[in-house]
Structures are given as C-alpha cells and as structure tokens.
C-alpha cells in the first residue's frame, strides 16, 4: 500500500498511509477508535476502491481484479454471518462447497481446536468458539494472504493462546497475515511488524522493539503509606506520575535512555535512608501499551 487515501464525503478517514506485508510475516494494524483501520482493511480486501494511492495484493488491484485475488485471500471479519441452525461440521461443509480446493473439514476444525464441537449447532457455541469457527472458514481455501479483524475478542486466555498457535502456524507456512486487535499483548506476542494509526495516519511503524525504543524505561512502586507525594524523589530528571489503582497510589517514572540502572540505585538508596519498603517495585522497558497511549494522546512523533 502506497499513499492510500479514503474519504467519506468531506471527511478524510485515511490520510495517506503506506505499508507492506511480506509472505511469512504478521503485520498488526493497531489504532484508536475511528483511526481508519477498518476503512484501510476494507480497501485491501477489495470491498472499496482507493480514492488515491496504490494498493496491491499478490501483485494485483484487490478491487478491480477482485475475482483473481479473492480466492487467495482468507478474511475473518469482526462479525461472522453464520446460519444458527447448522452444526459446526455442516457450516464447514457448506463453505467447502463454495470454495475451490478447500482443506478437508476435519483438518480445518482440528486447526482451530473445534474438532470436538463438530456436531454442535452454531447457536449453541460460545462467543469464543464462534470466533474460532470464523477462523476455520478464513483458512478453508488455503489462502496466501489472511486478514484477521480482532480475531480473539471474547476468547478466554486458553482459547486465545490456542488461536495464537494457529496463526503462528499460518505465518510459518509462508502466509502473509494482517491483524487488527485492541489487545496490545496480542500484537506484542504475534507481530513481526506493526503500525499504530491515529486519525487516519500511521503514527508509528516497525517491530515491537523498534516502536518501543525511544519511549524510555519505567520504574514504578506503590507510594508508601504516610508519605506525601511531594516527598517522592526526582530520579535523573524524571518526576513521578501518580495514578490511583484501587486503594493505592502508584508512582511511575519514565526515564531517559541509559538511566535505568543509576535511577534504580538512587531510588533504593533513598528508600533505605527513609526506612521505606517499596511495595510492587518494578522496572521494565516501555510496553506497546505505553507507546499506544502516548500516540493516542496526540504526542507521537
Ligand atoms: N460509511 C461511513 N460514512 C462516514 N464516515 C465513516 C463511514 N465509515 C467510517 N467512517 C468514519 O471514518 C473514520 C474511520 O473509521 P474506521 O471504521 O475505519 O475506524 P477504525 O480504526 O476501524 O475504528 P474502530 O477501532 O473503532 O473499529 C471514523 O471517524 C468513522 O466515523
């Protein structure tokens, strides 16, 4: 995708974005609500023409050459449209009839961990199981490019991990995967590269390590009882940010590059001198969530 722009009337929902996704790579498209992710995905999936810019999937225009591209694409929308009275196996059989060169039904249900639900009616599936059936249908036609729109919404942690394994398997087989999610740990876990969109633009792009770099390390702890916030130390130029979590005030410092170790040393010395125990003390590099919140706050580069 090169310079994609999309408008709804006078409103520019996508304001010139570019990215590419290679085979055997998972690209996560993240962003605030209304950032333009769905509009972007709908364009690459061939549902709408680009207002400006160039979009190619497998070397072709996904809108104008939809017939050629669509059979090689697997699409998992946010809401699948199932027939509630069909069983899981019947649903897969129905879609196999519409798909050239489909995978065997058993294989696809095995891939998504629904083999033991084959005889269950769709209306009796849980929300997470429906998402897995959606994934089964997306991979039925042995796609080379897969679009997953919030694939693990409603899944319990175990089902989510099982789905991550399935998705990793696709990537290992050389499939190009584009995923949107509001679960940042999902992007951290799966993405080879990612982009964070905000108000129609890509604000940050790169590997998880690349986008986290430059956002500093974090040190945090629960503010000890009886201590006034004003009495907390400044650590290598960083003042604490105070957040109330439950009953406790938590102090977090965002440190500049290379100052984590000396800042921690100063903090521990200060705590010793004041005979304070620092509950919940943690030191870590910036998470994707830190980068995301910074971007969503409009302060991105
Ligand atoms: N058919 C439409 N007509 C007018 N405006 C639209 C239309 N579809 C989307 N928009 C607007 O375009 C912007 C981008 O919407 P889009 O659905 O692409 O965002 P998103 O990143 O997918 O958001 P979310 O995370 O909330 O799903 C939003 O401001 C939305 O209100």
TrEMBL record:
Listed SUPFAM superfamilies: P-loop containing nucleoside triphosphate hydrolases
Keywords tagged on the record: Antibiotic resistance, ATP-binding, Nucleotide-binding, Transport
Family per similarity comment: Belongs to the ABC transporter superfamily.
Gene3D superfamilies listed in its UniProt record: P-loop containing nucleotide triphosphate hydrolases
Topology of this chain in the membrane: Peripheral membrane protein
Principal subcellular localization: membrane
An MF annotation (GO) of this entry: ATP binding
Lineage: Bacteria, Bacillati, Actinomycetota, Actinomycetes, Streptosporangiales
Domain spans labelled ABC transporter: 4-224
Name recorded for this polypeptide: ABC transporter ATP-binding protein
Compartment list: Cell membrane
């Amino acid at each position: 995708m090169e310079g994609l722009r999309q408008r709804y009337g006078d409103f520019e929902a996508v304001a010139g974005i570019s990215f590419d996704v290679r085979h055997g790579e998972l690209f996560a498209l993240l962003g605030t609500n209304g950032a333009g992710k769905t509009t972007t995905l709908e364009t690459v999936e061939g549902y709408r023409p680009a207002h400006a810019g160039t979009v190619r999937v497998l070397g072709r225009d996904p809108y104008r050459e939809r017939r050629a591209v669509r059979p090689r694409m697997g699409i998992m929308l946010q809401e699948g449209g199932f027939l509630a009275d069909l069983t899981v196996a019947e649903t897969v059989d129905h879609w196999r009839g519409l798909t050239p060169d489909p995978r065997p039904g058993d294989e696809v249900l095995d891939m998504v961990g629904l083999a033991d639900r084959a005889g269950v009616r769709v209306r009796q599936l849980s929300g997470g199981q429906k998402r897995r059936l959606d994934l089964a249908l997306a991979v039925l036609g042995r796609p080379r490019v897969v679009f997953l729109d919030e694939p693990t919404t409603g899944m319990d942690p175990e089902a989510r991990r099982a789905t991550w394994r399935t998705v990793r398997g696709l990537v290992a087989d050389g499939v190009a995967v584009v995923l949107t999610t509001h679960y940042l740990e999902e992007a951290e876990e799966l993405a080879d590269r990612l982009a964070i969109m905000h108000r129609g633009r890509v604000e940050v792009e790169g590997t998880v390590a690349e986008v986290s770099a430059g956002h500093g390390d974090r040190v945090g702890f629960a503010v000890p009882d009886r201590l006034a916030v004003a009495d907390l130390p400044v650590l290598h130029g960083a003042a604490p940010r105070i957040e109330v979590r439950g009953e406790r005030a938590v102090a977090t410092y965002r440190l500049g590059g290379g100052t984590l170790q000396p800042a921690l040393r100063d903090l521990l010395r200060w705590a010793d001198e004041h005979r304070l125990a620092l509950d919940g003390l943690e030191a870590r590099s910036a998470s994707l969530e830190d980068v995301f919140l910074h971007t969503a706050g409009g302060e991105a580069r």
